[in-house]
């Protein structure tokens, strides 16, 4: 039986054989709201119904038929003062959550959560004393809820000794993300390293692979940077420059400028940020080429605050910070979503403001973190609710918890570790280290004020944008100076011009070859060894044909086809040289062999056997073929790319052009060229020597050997000049091609003109090509053989006559000498007789 009063509840009469235990003796007739009474029974009687009843705000007591709820106690430390007085707003938010949870019939219906809290003043020393009181004062606490990183570190490290779960609402130190040191720690306040996944996502979105960092040397920034370094490494991003400073950032900023840092992550407090950006302005390390990433919890006008420690004006600071990007943890859900508490974030703020009694949020400590404290209570309530079933299956209950019970602690840990629900601060979920995975707001300073450009939901891995990727200016810059690789190609005008001359030379070679074959039966042509001249003409045309692949580069063919072009260059030029120069060398070598020997050996060699000449050319050709085959089998030619010094284009563009040039090369190119040039060089020198030695020799067997010698002079000089010059000019494609191709063209033109034009002129002007050819057609090849036989016969007769004349003269001299001696011995000698003897 009870009586209702507007300001409380009247006292209740005890039942028969029972009594009522009041909490504290009272003589009052009206008990306050939330006052509880407890029924007791005498003798062997037991209570039917609730054992405890509570005074409700409407002046009534809880229903007699309402089941009694068992209480679960939470030990909390709220810093109401000190370095971070976050408890001023976080405590009311937690109490709001507790009231809603205790009224819910679907969450812990048999239990009631009660908060026992103290003011830690954000001081680890004070927190140590309060933690002792919480642990060693009844009732037993099932969970601890500290705030402040320094206090949470102390509580979390000690809690495992009492098998207690620690759930923090206001701790951001990265050091707390250490499961080995803090095995039972969870937090709804994200770690300071939560900025790093967002930064990595932005780096990847804007295709940055190289970043730089500058940090203030404090533990929180060092650990944050260590985490960032690990994450970017996994993402394939390089930290190219890492600078740090204690108080003066001047040297660190200069190093960033010197090493061409473009994308820079800055980790420092607000006061140090002003020092950094004053130096940034001095070093001109800002503008559209650079992007700075800063922490988002600075004041909005932090760069406009006058600071005596810097010597930069507000205008200069505003210019230097323009365009920088900030990342800030989202502590209030930006979307209108009703979560586990059935409140939207805006409805929560309205109720919190009402509970604070109209206090100014900016003057209330922990107002930003209040949603985190609210969601921390809901995370705990949902986790405890999730453990009821598993514990019941094991014959355990939550109220059985004590500091030695590891099984209940393990179930609570498991439930918290798998938490996932929508809260007023966003989606609540914990990572493997027990840290909250939350949203990160991305802002950029545009025109002196911060503009929201996007946010990152770490729980889902989604990067979302406000509008259409609202980046200031034309878009994100490159992470380094953009190097554009540009191939250098041969001038097409030069290639076409040289190709025309080469084509005319090939046409000229065809004319000369046709002339020589057509007049091969003419005696004058026969005496010039026409087959060797044919080889010379063919070799000249092959050398001219090599000009075309010499001018073909990546502009005309694909990279896969370029080695084939390299092979054509090598083989056409090598075999063309062997045929053209080898045939001329063979002629001059035979003339020297025959006409510079002693008379007795000269007679044996004057009979010319053509097959020996052809064999000599064949040997030179085989040597070249074998050497080229070995080269291509052992060390084949392939395409190589030469890189040149980067060049800056005209205009204000953040680009450099890196010229590239394609070459035909092999692994031991210099060795092979040394062998080939050495062998060919010896042939050229020997050819010059033989041509000089035979310049005064005259023979009808090879009637054009003087012309051959002249051609050898020209070819040798051009080749010995061209080979080293083209190696020096190899990096200048136009000059190298012009020098090499023109040397080939001039050598061929000179050779063809010197060897074939005089023959054409003689046959045309003298008409020898008609009479000799007609006579040859009648008599056949025997005529030439008869003439040679007659010539040899005349030479033998001439020698015999010379011997007879010498013998007669010798005999006459001997007889005359005898006569003189005989007259001298006579006694009567006179001058007449002596004169007659002398005659």
UniProtKB/TrEMBL annotation:
UniProt keyword list: Cell membrane, Coiled coil, Disulfide bond, G-protein coupled receptor, Glycoprotein, Membrane, Phosphoprotein, Postsynaptic cell membrane, Receptor, Signal, Synapse, Transducer, Transmembrane, Transmembrane helix
Residue numbers spanned by region Disordered: 774-795
Composition-biased stretches (Polar residues): 774-785
Coiled coil: none
Gene Ontology cellular component terms for the protein in this record: G protein-coupled receptor heterodimeric complex; postsynaptic membrane
Keyword DNA damage carried by entry: no
Transmembrane segments: 494-519, 531-550, 570-590, 611-634, 671-692, 712-731, 737-757
Domain G-protein coupled receptors family 3 profile: 501-779
Membrane topology: Multi-pass membrane protein
Gene3D superfamilies: 3.40.50.2300, Complement Module, domain 1
CDD domains: 7tmC_GABA-B-R1, CCP, PBP1_GABAb_receptor
Any Gene Ontology biological process: gamma-aminobutyric acid signaling pathway
Keyword field contains Signal: yes
GO function terms (MF aspect): G protein-coupled GABA receptor activity
Subcellular localization(s) per the UniProt record: Postsynaptic cell membrane
InterPro entries: ANF_lig-bd_rcpt, GPCR3_GABA-B, GPCR_3_C, GPCR_3_GABA_rcpt_B1, Peripla_BP_I, Sushi/SCR/CCP_sf, Sushi_SCR_CCP_dom
PROSITE patterns xref list: G_PROTEIN_RECEP_F3_4
Similarity comment text for this entry: Belongs to the G-protein coupled receptor 3 family. GABA-B receptor subfamily.
Protein name: Gamma-aminobutyric acid (GABA) B receptor, 1b
Species of origin: Cyprinus carpio
